[in-house]
Amino acid sequence: MGVTIAAAKLTELRTADVVALPVTAEPAIGFAAEVAARIAGLEIPSGIDAKWATKVNFSASAGETFALRSLSGPTLLLIGIGAGDSEGWRKFGAAAVRSASAKQAVGIVVPAANADLQEAAATGALLATYKFTTHKSNKAESVAKIVVACSSKTGLDKAVAAARATADAVSFAKDLINEPPGHLSPTELATRAAAKLKGVGTSTKVEVWEKARIQKERLGGLLGVAQGSIEPPRLVKATYTPAKSTAKTPHIVLVGKGVTFDSGGLSLKPPGSMMRMKTDMSGAAIVLGVVAACGSLGIKVKVTAFAPMTENMPSGTAIRPSDVLTARNGKTMEVLNTDAEGRLILADALCLGTELKPTVMIDVATLTGAQVVALGDIAAAFATTKELSDALFQAGEREGEPNWPMPLPAQFRSHIDSDIADMKNTGKSGEAGSISAALFLKEFVGDTQWAHLDIAGPSDAAGDSGYLTRGGTAFSLRTILRYLRDL
User: Does the domain made of 4-153 have the CATH classification 3.40.50.1000?
Assistant: First the structure.
């Protein structure tokens, strides 16, 4: 992310080309932060007249803009924040950036002494600058600089730094997700992830397991899915240890699905369904992005991420429908649909995580089409405790990444009963597909407090909107970071 961002006092907005002022819609329309009489050489009104706002059709809904242009000096933008929650402030920051031209300096005015809202505005602004232009001959340029300003800088530098760390992690994950599959084999994904994680400080360690190590560790699900591809599998293990960590420091394990391209295997997908299957490694990119940000954000718990990586391809060596694989914990899995491969590779990684006896384990995966049918752009969240379910729900609400608590009904376990193995990798046709997938994964977590986030729907955006940009979204990365920060 090439754009620079800085914290400043209102009097330091002299060089801004665009100045964004936040306007709240509730309880009445008006400025949502302390505004000086003059900003960047412009006279600023002391308030906003409700009749005028109605006349010009400006309601101050989140992200709504109204430009006040001057003959000289910067463009002044009135931007709505709606009810003034964190999501409204993220959309405020994003709208300020989207309203500016390339190479312009954008000033955004935020409230003093409210680090959460300051960070939200800065995060939205940074996320809106994201562009994936690796394979374009003409690189699109974004704004040159973002200046976050308020009447008092107390705490503002820290809030801006946190926004930068979060946005950098999201951009890292999105760069991986958006990369074409021919450029991002499991080996290349592991190499890029390891390079990133080795550069974030001594508190983070990373290991890359090659095929021989994967065989030694008995990761039968990962090996089974990988055998149809000429590309060998990989597994990345990344660990963040905070300063002053002790045996009593909570330990959170993250697991992310890393299928770099999913053709469906011998249960081949139709062509249209393959179009976005380069994003099937979103879970891996997300959990590794989380670990990359932990040091900068001062996370105070230990975090370990496991990211199994493979392609799922059809060939003469591919697993066949009705084959049986053995996971690391010895449980056998009948493969009735090779396109239900994500749960097979996650099974091994969940076993590895469970063996560490963590406080909590969370997996993230673009797992089922059933999730998309049921919830669309809201993630399906399955958890073994209400405490964890509530914590993830609240973190998602705060970060604008909604997830919905889903049940794990014991009577549905029969949906994955197999005649010849411990379980099969598909449930009943047309019935509770995301639930049966979650119950399959639950077989590999033992007594660990565990949550599963199925992000198949919100993992990809069809176009630019607010701080979201077309392509991979890294949905749930900010939710998990918020959960870790709240701990």
Answer: no
